[in-house]
Design goal:
The protein is α+β, with helices and mostly antiparallel strands. The chain has 2 domains: 186 residues, Chloramphenicol Acetyltransferase, CATH 3.30.559; 200 residues, Chloramphenicol Acetyltransferase. It is built from 13 helices and 16 strands. Helix 8 crosses helix 12 and helix 10 packs across helix 11.
Length: 435
């Protein structure tokens, strides 16, 4: 399928109110200092609005974005190294484009290469020698009148919860509804930054032949999966959550895909999952706390163990996630906070460097209400991400129905071919990617 993108305009959208002098330099917290530098792209697709023309849509989005940036002003800034965001004279590039394709063609059989063309920038091709924009936005109009709104937000200063808060605030203002969604911008006070060399995994982003595919699991499939994953799970009496059960299935199917590769048997596996800290702290942080307020939990399944079943993955994952609590937060805030913050990064690096350890990174976004993002012409028809050039990354999103989950899985080509034909995976997947 061919698609041509024409950029019609590029505006510099500034906060509607001037930023006070004392706020023109936004400090990064310790957790932001160890966060990756790439962007997180989210694409929201909308059917053609009724009784509203393109110019009105552009003006509505532009004006409401300007108003929203007054509260979320770091998103209009430029990230300077690993210390701060320059918010003086800040602005967000707001591009308008036309795509010579029908929205239905994209939604029918989503092709990742087409979705990628809708982005205002390459999320993973970041120059480290100069200041970079915190966010970029592109509004794509399709031939049918439908739209694709793309938000590329730097992971250096914001996590999924912050993105969700920003979208809620922007959409609310666009609808003309007065709801004061004001972010709390004090993460650097909660997690003080450190003037130290930050340990980061090497060669995280590679330009090898990785492929990202979407696997959809509906409500009935997830219910059956939870039952299967609960067998043998008697440690705490709690049934697996949908995320736990699906994580276990993806890990087990991925491990099966590796058997026989280069003559190897069953590999060892390290699994990381993102745990958000806002509600785990005592007292909990405000809902709209701005920043990267999360912690990675790392579990391991070693090859010398017996053939792991679904519940084995759930048990190991629960053990490490349970450790992300208020005590963990206090360690991050203490004198040894830097060392504590770097532990998961060092731990995973050591596991992988030892050889024959497959490392899988999971992040669940199902708690974020992307499908409630109504700018005044209805809720999204579909919300998605783009290609991820990082091996063994899995991002979980809610499906458009609200009760299912889309798993966006990135593997190398050889592993993906085996993974997507795994019999246990196919037992539960309701929509598999096209070949």
């Amino acid at each position: 399928m061919q698609m041509k993108i024409e950029i019609v305009s590029e505006d510099q959208c500034k906060p509607s109110s001037p930023i006070p002098d004392h706020l023109k330099s936004y400090k990064l917290s310790l957790l932001e200092q160890i966060a990756p530098m790439f962007y997180v792209p989210v694409i929201l697709f909308y059917s053609a609005p009724e009784n509203i023309d393109d110019t009105t849509i552009v003006d509505k989005l532009n004006n409401s974005l300007s108003e929203t940036l007054t509260g979320f002003y770091p998103l209009a800034g430029r990230i300077e190294g690993n210390a701060s965001v320059d918010c003086e004279d800040g602005a967000v590039v707001f591009a308008r484009a036309r795509a010579n394709i029908q929205l239905s063609e994209i939604l029918k059989i989503p092709e990742m290469d087409l979705v990628q063309q809708l982005l205002p920038l390459d999320p993973y091709n970041i120059r480290m020698d100069k200041a970079v924009a915190a966010m970029a936005i592109q509004l794509n109009f399709f031939d049918c009148g439908g739209m694709g709104i793309v938000i590329c937000l730097s992971h250096k200063i914001a996590d999924g919860a912050t993105l969700s808060s920003f979208l809620d605030a922007w959409a609310t203002r666009s609808r003309g509804v007065f709801e004061n969604i004001t972010p709390s911008l004090n993460s650097a006070n909660i997690f003080p930054p450190r003037d130290k060399q930050i340990f980061m995994p090497s060669n995280l982003i590679k330009r090898e032949k990785f492929v990202t595919k979407r696997f959809v699991f509906d409500a009935s499939s997830l219910a059956k999966l939870k039952v299967k994953a609960s067998k043998g799970l008697c440690t705490d009496g709690r049934a697996p959550t949908r995320v736990e059960a699906l994580t276990a299935l993806i890990c087990k199917s991925s491990m099966n895909a590796k058997i026989g590769t280069l003559g190897r048997g069953r590999p060892s596996m390290a699994i990381s999952h993102v745990g958000y800290l806002r509600e785990r702290m005592a007292p909990p942080l405000p809902e709209h706390s701005f920043g990267n307020i999360w912690r990675v939990a790392v579990a391991s399944i070693m090859k010398d163990e017996s053939k792991p079943e679904l519940h084995d993955f759930v048990v190991q994952l629960r053990k490490v996630i349970r450790k992300i609590d208020d005590d963990c937060v206090r360690k991050l805030q203490g004198e040894d906070g830097f060392s504590h913050a770097c532990e998961p990064l060092k731990e995973t690096s050591e596991l992988v460097s030892e050889g024959e350890v497959e490392f899988f990174r999971f992040s669940s976004w199902i708690r974020f209400s992307l499908y409630n993002t109504d700018f005044g012409w209805g809720k999204p028809t579909w919300a998605c991400i783009s290609n991820v050039p990082i091996k063994n990354v899995v991002i979980l999103l809610s499906s458009s129905s609200g009760d299912g989950i889309e798993a966006w899985v990135t593997l190398d080509e050889e592993d993906m071919a085996k993974f997507e034909s795994d019999h246990e995976l196919l037992e539960f997947v309701s929509v598999a990617p096209s070949s």
